[in-house]
Amino acid sequence: MTLLVNLPGCGFQLRTTPAWPASLQPVATDSIPQGRDFILLLRRTLSEQGVALNGQAAAQIVVVDEQHKRQIQSLDNQGRVSVYQLNYEVILKLNGADGELLIEAEPYRFQRSYAYDPARALGNQWQEQQMIKRMRQQAIERFMQRVALSDPAGAAK
Hints:
With 157 residues, the protein is α+β, with helices and mostly antiparallel strands. The protein has 4 helices and 4 strands. A 4-stranded mixed beta sheet has the order 1-2-3-4, with helices on one face. The protein is elongated and about 60 Å long.
């Protein structure tokens, strides 16, 4: 119990999504068709932080591209897939209210590997979907950290 009480004193903090700058609110989102699931997760994350998503937008987050690919990483003795590698990439940029570029398009890339069991086809599919969802969340966290650190609208004022 004393360990939990002493954790804040030692500098330990749970990782949280960085706060979205007030100068960039409300925020709008725009995406290519395949970025729909990413945008839904992004809007939910922003909303949970209390970021205004409606009204005259001060900034617009644009999903330029989103892709995920599965590659064979290794085979077993019988030549069947035993491990897959997931490659995920999303490219995001931030525009100001007047359409000016605040943060250039930047790729966020992640890779994960997972063991494939042919006897658990549905389990493998669920596992892959969960990994993609987590990589999307990590991309959102990194993008929000980038925006929070630069606060391009606040620096311009």
